[in-house]
Amino acid sequence: MFVPMTGRKVFALFALGFGTIIAVNVALAVSAVRTFPGLEVKNSYVASQHFDEERAAQEALGWQAETHVDEGRLVISLTGEDGGAVKPRTLSVTIGRPTTDADDRELKLVRDGTAYVAGMPSGVGAWQVRIAATSADGTPFRQRITIWSGSGK
Q: Which of 2, 8, 61, 67 would you label with 148, given CA atoms 20 to 30 Å apart?
């Protein structure tokens, strides 16, 4: 049975198709805005003016940061060029999800011999560890490390 195509049917098909596309775009935009953690810096141009010199100073320290999860604890090791443990003047570690700041929390660290240990938040998936330290001479050290917790990785 052949049903004739009328102007109303064509309009309804176009409206349904474009309405679906618009609804999906609005849903994705709302989700993106709700999970946006905010700006990293107030003015990226100004921040970029000192990036190379700050990176060179950090690289001159020769520090390496490594993290892993061991029995529900986050273990952070800071080592120097010689492979020995480094004890920074200041150290703060924030952990959270890579895509939102809703789960961000600053960790209370305990020095355990040569490493720093803190309780790992519960939850499976990717976590971003943000390390901010200062050397004895005041040189800042910053690093972000993504780790996986739970099953799957």
A: 61
Looking up residue 114, the CATH number of its domain turns out to be: 2.60.40.10
Give the total number of structural domains in the chain.
1
> What tens digit of pLDDT does each residue of 111-129 get?
988 899 998 888 888 999 9
Using the predicted structure, report yes or no on whether residue 108 has a pLDDT greater than 50: yes
Phi and psi for 145 in degrees, rounded to 5? -130, 130
Give long-range contacts, CB 8 A cutoff, 24+ apart: 149-152: 149/69, 149/120, 149/121, 149/123, 149/124, 149/125, 150/123, 150/124, 150/125, 151/124, 152/124, 152/125
Domain that residue 95 falls in = 44-149
Cα 101 from Cα 121, distance rounded (Å)? 14
What is the predicted pLDDT for the residue at 30? Answer: 94
pTM (predicted TM-score): 0.72
